[in-house]
Design a protein that fits this description.
The protein has nine helices and eight strands. With 228 residues, it is an alpha/beta fold. The protein has a six-stranded parallel beta sheet with strand order 2-1-3-4-7-8, with helices on both faces. A two-stranded antiparallel ribbon has the order 5-6. It starts with a strand and ends with a helix.
Length: 228
């Protein structure tokens, strides 16, 4: 199956290299998506540009696809379900949840000179980054791509309620499935509260399992792709 892989803030398509290699070995066709402004295009890229890149990858696939979003890009994966529900077999969300309609995509960090640079490890100390050693952190920082403000502050627009019919999987890295269920039950994640089918999968990692647990993450994705 074609599996689209969309990284979160500061990541380009190469962040998925080891996961993609594992998925190929498991018989799937991984398609890491390098987003405009995050490895391709300029700092003037917008959320609409990133959405268009994801939809182009969906449309280019020969058949139905599974779309995987990580962190903030869970919203991009969910937008794919909103725009192309008939083309998706499943949407997988890793370490994040979809932003609701009308809210900014990822207005979490300071904008400087028109971009959101990687803010350093301070905001991620604790479970998020506990499994990243010094070498992994230095490599992450070296590869981090500042995110255009037009992406981070772009407003999310959801229009097609058929997105709720697309089977969804929430992969839980730095939080547990029990915590995720609690958040959803409390009304903190309204988009997933309305999902017709939502499964939860735990992975013992920090926020970036494609870096620290690529083989395990690939197995989780392959299992999700084989269970429609």
């Amino acid at each position: 199956m074609d599996i689209l892989l969309i990284g979160g803030l500061w990541l380009n398509g190469s962040a998925w290299d080891r996961v993609a290699s594992e998925l190929e070995g498991l018989g799937h066709r991984p398609v890491p998506v390098t987003l405009p402004g995050q490895g391709t295009g300029s700092a003037s890229a917008t959320l609409d540009d990133q959405e268009a890149a994801v939809l182009a990858a969906v449309d280019a696939a020969p058949g139905k696809v599974m779309v995987v979003g990580h962190s903030a890009a869970c919203t991009l994966a969910w937008l794919a379900a909103d725009r192309r529900p008939e083309r998706l077999t499943k949407v997988v969300l890793i370490g994040g949840v979809p932003t609701v309609d009308g809210q900014p995509y990822a207005d979490f960090f300071e904008v400087r000179d028109g971009v959101v640079p990687f803010p350093g490890w301070g905001p991620f100390e604790g479970p998020d980054a506990a499994d990243l050693d010094g070498e992994a952190r230095r490599a992450f920082e070296a590869d981090a791509v500042p995110v255009p403000s037009g992406v981070a502050k772009g407003l999310v627009r959801l229009t097609d309620e058929r997105r709720f019919d697309v089977p969804a999987v929430l992969v839980c890295p730095e939080f547990t499935p029990a915590q995720a269920r609690e958040w959803i039950g409390a009304g903190d994640v309204p988009e997933l509260a309305r999902a017709v089918r939502l499964d939860f999968v735990d992975i013992d990692s920090g926020h970036w399992p494609m870096v620290t647990r690529p083989a395990e993450l690939a197995r989780i994705l392959a299992e999700a792709a084989g269970t429609v």
